[in-house]
From TrEMBL:
Protein name listed in UniProt: Inositol 2-dehydrogenase
Record InterPro entries: Gfo/Idh/MocA-like_OxRdtase_N, Gfo/Idh/MocA_oxidrdct_glycsds, GFO_IDH_MocA-like_dom, NAD(P)-bd_dom_sf
Keywords, ordered alphabetically: NAD, Oxidoreductase
SUPFAM superfamilies attached to this UniProt entry: Glyceraldehyde-3-phosphate dehydrogenase-like, C-terminal domain, NAD(P)-binding Rossmann-fold domains
């Protein structure tokens, strides 16, 4: 067995779940952690038994690191991913893959020219919850999919995050922060998006940090904090999505697909597991008939892990010479949808999507993260 060497750049909050999972997969070995604050990288490296730590160069210059995991803030994703490719390393990046279509396209082209892969979160679409539902749809439990509805509503991450300003700045907000989960799921099920129409609003121009060392500090809100998005897919289906940081009603993970022969409810696309269930049409309602529908549960198949699953699929796909599921091109298309939605909010007009993407592969039912396959 040849384990694939991995280095992580960015030792913030999300690095814990990546480090926990990646250090448990037999097919990969985490060799280095880098961060703008080397002390923070050292703390994470020591906590998870990673031998090398320092700044970004500790990862980029490491001769045995084959894949860089880019966990920096969204504004730095392109710069770090480009540096990794220039260093001859594959890239797995947190979402969004970047903030500009031209920049991301340049990275993908550079990766292709160098024979290097680019993968992009979210990798929740590889989880057993989503994959089980995707197989059920493909098997026809709801007939031909027609339209979908998704919703994410919260009061905002400023209620729990100790430094939330970046989540309300350009490149974030509910659309670019949470949208990748829902849009990636929709594209994986229904194919590429052809055009979008969106409306948005910003409830407040300023927010307050509520927890942590800078609690009480105010910060500016730069982006719409509620967006309602309509997507029309190349194959003709439609979806309606609500993404909000302004809702008193906390409601996360609504994801429904409606078809010619039924409706299926999928797990929260920000999670790797959850309930999958569908209903069939009522038929004819005669006088006095009860308006009742029977939910049919679909047993979930596959091992539940968490973030890092997409990177594992990517390194196995490299070895097997096959496409990986959460690809950079999927990330580019999802970014195109989100940036076009922003444009639609500003213009009040529908916007055509520039990019497309090949059908998103599915995960085999026997995919085992804890098996040594390389």
């Amino acid at each position: 067995m040849t384990r694939v060497g991995v280095g992580i750049i960015g030792a913030g909050v999300i690095s814990d779940t990546y480090l926990k999972n990646l250090t448990s997969f037999p097919d990969v070995e985490v060799l280095a952690v880098g961060d703008l604050l080397p002390d923070r990288a050292q703390k994470k490296a020591e906590e998870y038994g990673v031998p090398v730590h320092g700044d970004a160069s500790a990862v980029l210059d490491h001769p045995d690191v084959q894949v860089v995991v880019n966990l920096t803030i969204p504004a730095a994703h392109v710069e770090v991913s480009e540096a990794a490719i220039n260093a001859g390393k594959h890239v797995w990046t947190e979402k969004p893959v970047g903030l500009d279509l031209a920049d991301v396209s340049r990275i993908l082209a550079a990766g292709d020219a160098a024979g290097l892969r680019v993968g992009s979160a979210p990798d929740t679409i590889l989880g057993p919850g989503f994959q089980t539902a995707k197989r059920a749809i493909a098997e026809g439990v709801i007939g031909e999919p027609l339209f979908a509805q998704t919703a994410f509503q919260t009061q905002g991450p400023d209620l729990w995050h100790p430094d939330p300003a970046f989540l309300f700045s350009t490149g974030a907000g509910p659309l670019l922060d949470m949208g990748p989960y829902y849009i990636s799921g929709l594209v994986s099920l229904l194919g590429p998006v052809a055009r979008v129409f969106a409306a948005g609003l910003r409830a407040r121009d300023e927010r307050t940090v509520h927890l942590g060392p800078i609690a009480g500090t105010n910060f500016a809100v730069e982006v719409p904090t509620t967006v309602q998005l309509t997507t029309v897919f190349e194959a003709g289906q439609q979806a309606q999505s609500l993404l909000s940081f302004d809702s008193a009603l906390e409601r996360h993970g609504i994801f429904e697909v409606h078809g010619t022969e039924g409706t299926i409810v999928l797990p929260d696309p920000n999670q790797f597991e959850g309930r999958i269930a569908y209903v069939k049409p009522l038929g004819v309602l005669r006088d006095g008939a009860k308006f009742e529908q029977e939910w049919i549960d679909v047993p979930q198949q596959g091992a539940v892990v968490g973030r890092g699953l997409g990177l594992l699929d990517m390194v196995r796909a490299i070895a097997e010479d096959r496409p990986h599921v959460a690809s950079g091109r999927l990330g580019l298309h999802v970014l195109d949808v989100m940036l076009s939605a922003e444009q639609s909010v500003e213009s009040g007009q529908s916007v055509e999507i520039e990019t497309t993407v090949a059908p998103v592969p599915s995960v085999p039912t026997d995919f085992d993260p804890f098996a040594a396959t390389l």
